[in-house]
């Protein structure tokens, strides 16, 4: 596996999504990676196709997920950098300078052929987190703003205004709850209780 320092958004997104598969995030949903097939699907959906994880891989990935959460929740830039560097060190790799598909020089980290799945995941996520920290800053590492979610995320968006670990789920649930609360209170912004005059 080869990971570019320039493509930090992919690795940071992978870290965010992996952390938020934990049963600690949405307690009602439980474990989002209950079996090896679920892990294989997750990897395929996140640009790491072809893996056939074993039970041992699944256990190691769950431990990695806990380590990633610690890095995402780190209180300082230095703690975040140290945690992300430790992830990369698991893969026992060194940086190489190579040309990309457009013939530009890029820094890459690679894992040896046949490296364990968790080493490849640690490399991808650690590189993504370091790239985000260097390029966008520590303020982009955040807890989810939903009151019913314990997720964490890395905001690599251009505007930097993301509030939810899973916008399509957490953000939508918050909006639905607000709409219902307005509806129950008779708030005219819902359109249900508005008085129409001729």
Automatic annotation (TrEMBL):
PANTHER family: BLL6575 PROTEIN. It holds the Pfam family zf-CGNR. It comes from Streptomyces carpaticus. This is CGNR zinc finger domain-containing protein. Residues 140-183 form the Zinc finger CGNR domain. The lineage of its organism: Bacteria, Bacillati, Actinomycetota, Actinomycetes, Kitasatosporales. Residues 179-198 are annotated as: Disordered.
């Amino acid at each position: 596996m080869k990971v570019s320092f320039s493509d930090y958004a992919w690795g940071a997104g992978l870290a965010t999504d992996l952390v938020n598969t934990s049963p600690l995030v949405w307690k009602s949903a439980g474990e989002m990676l209950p079996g090896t097939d679920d892990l294989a699907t997750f990897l395929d959906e996140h640009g790491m196709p072809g893996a056939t994880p074993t039970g041992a891989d699944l256990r190691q990935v769950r431990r990695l997920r806990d380590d990633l959460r610690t890095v995402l929740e780190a209180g300082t830039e230095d703690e975040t950098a140290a945690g992300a560097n430790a992830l990369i060190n698991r893969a026992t790799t060194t940086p190489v300078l190579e040309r990309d598909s457009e013939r530009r020089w890029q820094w890459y980290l690679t894992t040896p052929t046949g490296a364990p799945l968790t080493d490849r995941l640690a490399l991808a996520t650690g590189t993504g987190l370091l790239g985000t920290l260097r390029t966008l800053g520590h303020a982009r590492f955040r807890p989810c703003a939903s009151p019913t979610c314990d997720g964490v995320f890395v905001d690599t968006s251009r505007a930097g205004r993301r509030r939810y670990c899973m916008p399509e789920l957490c953000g939508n649930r918050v909006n639905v709850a607000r709409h219902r609360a307005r509806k129950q209170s008779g708030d005219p912004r819902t359109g249900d209780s508005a008085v129409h005059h001729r």
